[in-house]
Specification:
The complex is a heterodimer of chains A (255) and B (316). Chain A has 255 residues and is of the alpha/beta class. Chain A has helices spanning 40-54, 71-81, 98-112, 131-139, 194-200, 210-213, 241-251; strands at residues 4-9, 12-14, 36-38, 58-67, 85-90, 116-120, 143-153, 158-165, 168-175, 178-182, 205-208, 221-227, 236-238. Chain A is built from seven helices and 13 strands. In chain B, α3 (68-82) packs across α4 (93-106). The longest helix of chain B has 16 residues, at 300-315. The interface between A and B is large, with 81 and 92 residues.
Chain lengths: 255, 316
C-alpha cells in the first residue's frame, strides 16, 4: 500500500498573546497593526502531521490555508515546520462562515485525495469549532474531534484516536480517509529552525480562488454588532487571610 | 415554528447541560421538543418529559456509546419527521461534535457557544475567547445552535409531563467508518474543571510541580476543581488538561481562586466570567488584581496553608 498524503488546514489569526480590541464603530475587532500568527490548534495539527510522516505513515504533508494575500505567511510557517508544499485559497475570510470554509476544503480535498485531514479543533478568532466536523460530514468521512493522541494502524487503513471529552477521555476507531481535529494535549509543536525557514521560502504554494473551487460565498450569517464584554468592576485588596476569609464568607457568600 | 433539542445523557440520567439547552430553547417562539437517542432512551425520556417548557419528547433507539456520525443521522431523521425551524444542543463535547455535522448536511450555517437568544434569528456569542461579544443574525431557514450551559439557568420541573413518542432509528451502515473503542473517565474525586462551581488555579508562582500539591488541601476544603495557567502548564508543573484560558478551557464558576497567577490576557479570557474572583500574588501590580473581586498581596506559600487552616476550622 502506498503511503498517504496528509492535508493540514492552517489559519492566520491574531496572535494569542494580543489583547483584542473592539473597533469604535462596533463593526468588528481591530486588525490594523496587530501581530498575526498561526492559530495554535493548527500548529498542533501541523506537528502531528509531521510526526506521522516521520513515523513512516505519510509520504507527503500539504498545508492549506484560506485567507487574504498575507495568509501565505502562515503557510510559510507550516512549511518551515516541515510541510512539503502548500495550497492557498485566496479569499477574504471576514464574513465567511465555517460551512463555506468546509466547502472550500472539500474541493481542495477532492483535488489532493489525502488519506487524512488534520485541522485544529477551533480557530481562536471566531471560536466556532465547526469546520472539521462539517468537512467530515460533507466528505462522508468519519471524524474524531478534540484529539489528544492518535495512532495510524493497518498500513494506513485505520486510525485510533483518543479524544478529550467532558468527563475524561474517549477512544474511537476510524477507517481512513478521515478528519481529525486537534486538542491542546496532542503534542508540543516544534520550533521552526532558521535553515528550515529558509528552505520553506523555496517550497511551492499553489494559489486558488473560491471561484476555481466552485464554492458560493453568499452570506449565511450577518454580523450585526461586536461589543466589549461587560467589564468587571475593580475589586478590593484585602490585607490578610483572615480578612479574605471574612469577605468570602460574609460578603460574597462564596461558602 | 418548533425547536428540537438534542438531549445528552449518561448512565440513564439526563445531563444538566440539557436543562440549560431547554431553557435556551424556551426563549424561542416555537414549541420545544426533545430528542433522546441511545440504548437508554426510554428511561431518559421520562426525565426529559418532566422538564419545564418541554412540549414533546421523541425517542430513538441507538448505541450505548454512539459516535457523532450516528447521532447526526438520528437528529436528521427526527428533523425530517418534525420539520423543525431550530435544532439546538448544549455546547458539550457531544453537542460540539454533532451539531456542525447536522448543519453541514442541511446546508445551513451553525452558531456555536451561544450565550444569549435575542430573537428567533438573532443571537449573541463570544468571539476571541470572550474578549468580544458578537451579535449575529442567522440567515438560513433552519437555525442550528449550540448554547453555552453556564449562560442559561437550568429549566425546572413541569407541572405535568409531556407526551413521549418514538421514532424508528435509521438503518445503521453495514460497515461503520467509525466506532467506539473505550473510555477512561477521570477518576479524580474532584469535580470536573469545565462544570465545577469552585476552581483553584495555580500559576508560575508555585515554582514547581511538587508545590502544586499545596493546592490539594485547599481544593479538599472547598470541593474545588484544580486548574492552571498556560505558564504553569508550559513549565510542566501540571497536566495540559488543567489549563484555563484562551487555548485551554473557558470556565465560569461561582468562585475562582487564582494562586500565583499574574493574569496574562490569554488566562483572563478563560476565567473572567467567574462570579467571584480571588487572587493571591506577591506582586501588587499583577494584572490579575484588575479582575479580582478580592486581592491578597502575600506569599502564596504562607497564604494557602493559612486559608486552608481557616477553612478547616470553620468546617468543624
Amino acid at each position: 500500500m502506498s503511503k498517504m498524503r496528509i492535508l493540514v488546514g492552517v489559519k492566520r489569526v491574531i496572535d494569542y498573546g494580543v489583547k483584542v480590541r473592539v473597533r469604535a464603530d462596533k463593526s468588528g475587532v481591530e486588525m490594523e497593526n496587530v501581530k498575526m500568527s498561526i492559530n495554535p490548534f493548527c500548529e498542533i495539527a501541523m506537528e502531528e502531521a509531521m510526526r506521522l510522516k516521520e513515523g513512516g505513515h505519510a509520504a507527503e504533508v500539504v498545508a492549506v490555508s484560506i485567507g487574504p494575500e498575507k495568509a501565505v505567511d502562515t503557510l510559510r510557517h507550516a512549511m518551515a515546520m516541515g510541510a512539503d508544499r502548500a495550497v492557498h485559497v485566496l479569499a477574504e475570510t471576514e464574513g465567511m462562515v465555517p460551512l463555506q470554509v468546509a466547502k472550500l476544503l472539500v474541493a481542495v480535498a477532492q483535488k489532493e485525495s489525502p488519506g487524512l485531514i488534520i485541522l485544529g479543533k477551533q480557530a481562536i478568532d471566531g471560536d466556532c469549532n465547526q469546520t472539521g466536523q462539517m468537512l467530515s460530514a460533507l466528505l462522508g468521512w468519519p471524524q474524531a474531534t478534540f484529539a489528544s493522541k492518535m495512532t495510524v494502524a493497518d498500513g494506513g487503513a485505520k486510525a485510533e484516536v483518543v479524544r478529550e471529552v467532558d468527563g475524561g477521555l474517549e477512544t474511537v476507531g476510524l477507517r481512513l480517509p478521515a478528519v481529525v481535529t486537534t486538542d491542546l494535549r496532542l503534542n508540543e509543536p516544534r520550533y521552526a529552525t532558521l535553515p528550515n525557514i529558509m528552505k520553506a521560502k523555496k517550497k511551492k504554494v499553489d494559489k486558488l480562488t473560491p471561484a476555481d473551487l466552485g464554492v458560493d460565498l453568499a452570506p449565511r450569517v450577518k454580523q450585526l454588532l461586536v461589543e466589549e464584554p461587560p467589564k468587571r468592576k475593580a475589586g478590593v485588596k484585602v490585607t490578610s487571610v483572615d480578612e479574605l476569609f471574612d469577605k468570602l464568607a460574609n460578603e460574597a457568600k462564596a461558602f | 415554528l418548533a425547536t428540537l433539542v438534542l438531549a445528552e445523557h449518561s448512565g440513564g440520567a439526563l445531563n444538566d447541560a440539557t436543562l440549560s439547552a431547554v431553557a435556551a430553547a424556551s426563549k424561542l417562539s416555537g414549541d420545544t421538543h426533545v430528542l433522546v437517542v441511545g440504548a437508554q432512551a426510554s428511561v431518559v425520556a421520562t426525565a426529559a418529559a418532566a422538564v419545564e417548557g418541554v412540549k414533546a419528547v421523541v425517542t430513538m433507539a441507538g448505541d450505548d456509546k454512539p459516535v457523532a456520525e450516528s447521532v447526526t443521522t438520528a437528529v436528521l431523521a427526527a428533523h425530517k419527521a418534525g420539520g423543525y425551524t431550530h435544532i439546538l444542543s448544549a455546547s458539550t463535547s457531544v453537542g460540539k461534535s454533532v451539531m456542525p455535522r447536522v448543519a453541514a448536511l442541511l446546508d445551513v450555517a451553525a452558531l456555536t457557544e451561544v450565550v444569549a437568544v435575542e430573537s428567533d434569528d438573532t443571537f449573541k456569542r463570544p468571539i476571541y475567547a470572550g474578549n468580544a461579544i458578537s451579535t449575529v443574525q442567522a440567515l438560513d431557514a433552519v437555525k442550528v445552535l449550540t448554547i453555552r450551559p453556564t449562560s442559561f439557568e437550568k429549566a425546572g420541573l413541569a407541572a405535568a409531563p409531556a407526551p413521549i413518542t418514538s421514532l424508528d432509528a435509521p438503518t445503521p451502515p453495514a460497515e461503520p467508518a467509525s466506532w467506539f473503542v473505550s473510555e477512561e473517565l477521570s477518576k479524580s474525586e474532584r469535580p470536573e474543571l469545565a462544570s465545577a462551581s469552585t476552581i483553584i488555579s495555580g500559576g508560575r508562582g508555585l515554582k514547581s510541580a511538587d508545590n502544586f500539591k499545596l493546592l490539594d488541601g485547599l481544593a479538599d476544603q472547598l470541593n474545588a476543581a484544580l486548574g492552571a495557567s498556560r505558564a504553569a502548564v508550559d513549565a510542566g508543573f501540571c497536566p495540559n488538561d488543567w489549563q484555563v484560558g484562551q487555548t485551554g478551557k473557558v470556565v465560569a464558576p461561582d468562585l475562582y481562586l487564582a494562586v500565583g497567577i499574574s493574569g496574562a490576557i490569554q488566562h483572563l479570557a478563560g476565567m473572567k466570567d467567574s462570579k467571584t474572583i480571588v487572587a493571591i500574588n506577591t506582586d501588587p501590580d499583577a494584572p490579575i488584581f484588575q479582575v479580582a473581586d478580592y486581592g491578597l498581596v502575600e506569599d502564596l506559600f504562607k497564604a494557602c496553608p493559612d486559608l486552608e487552616a481557616k477553612l478547616k476550622a470553620a468546617a468543624k
